[in-house]
Amino acid sequence: MALTSNEIVTAEWQTAEAYVNQVFEAVKRRNPNEFEFHQAVKEIFDSLIPIFAKYPKYIEHNILERMAEPERLITFRVPWVDDQGKVQVNRGFRVQFNSAIGPYKGGLRFHPSVNASIIKFLGFEQIFKNSLTGLPIGGGKGGSDFDPKGKSDGEVMRFTQSFMTELYRHIGQDIDVPAGDIGVGAREIGYLFGQYKRIRGGYEAGILTGKAPIYGGSPARPEATGYGTVYFVEEMLADKGMGFKDSTVVVSGSGNVSIYAIEKATQLGAKVVACSDSNGYIYDKNGIQLETVKRLKEVERKRISEYVNFHPEAEYVEGSTGIWSIPCDIALPCATQNEIDEVYAQILIDNGVKAIGEGANMPSTLEAIDLFLENKVLFGPAKAANAGGVAVSALEMSQNSMRLSWSFEEVDEKLQMIMKNIYRNSVKAADEFGYHDNLVVGANIAGFTKVADAMIAQGVI
To answer: What residues does substrate bind to (predicted)?
Structure first.
């Protein structure tokens, strides 16, 4: 990512830049062909040059190289039996990236695209995201190339039980606390928790987050990532005298994050006109009818194309990335990584987009981010804007530790405060280093500083 500061290049800056480039090249050599991981590392590394120039202690302690290497990467076989009685085999992953400020915390993703590169990019981002929440949680991530789509409940249960039979050895409520991500919702979390409880022979509620409230989950956890993204963008807009009210919004995806981003944006007075799944997108000029989307995706588990059967005035278009050609004031990419490239970024800019809030992890390419920043589009990067999910997961951990449950309103109030603090701290860090309105730099520096200082305080870890 190109930096846009007007600072004079000093000897300290040159030293910092050389250090960052040297470590990045070492990361690429050590992790060949892991392009998603390289992309995440590059975006963060480049934005940290100012802090290394100002505070050389981080170079002296070689923090960057230490932080870019996971403390532990676990890969394992997951055999399971399908409904025809045939044994299937998938691959499971868990990366425990950094525990300097707390136990590893991060979701599990079940999707055919999952590999070591994607798990490592997600885990590396999680370090900074978790730090930004202000809560004591380290960075981790996990998952499998298993695809729950089209599988029966029995097949999903048998797979998740096999997955947990290996994973349980590596997790614990004070060690590593997984949650859900793409392909891992309430059903999967329930099966995973049940298998862990069976193996361990005890009720350890804090071992997983994203649980249903009836067995230790937190109110507002399903809503947290989507709501949190909108709360962050609302703060970003308010600083410029704008808001969601009377704005046109496009939200990609139609999963958990997307559904609740649509819900909260609508509550704030916006008209959300489009959403998508991996096959295509729907455009409803009258505004998306959220109850239909919820029924299709959360209850019936059908494709978004079915929406037009209930709302014939809407349009369905094959191909999900075309959603970014729809003119909008606010774009909320909530589907998956790299869904907005520089071509669609330019289309959004040409169509007058005012703000981007990343609800998914790394949904914009580095080139797209540069275009948004160069064109003064307000840009909320994923590690800041979508931190609401892991924030409420940490609040779930707190409730489990105290053996109590807060109300929805209490959790939502805490979530709003956390997202406001993330925004303010990102702005403060960006301004301190001369990158006004660049929340990519601000969020990365704010997230980095806390973890780096903890690593120095704890010695060589």
So the answer is: 105, 126, 129, 180, 393
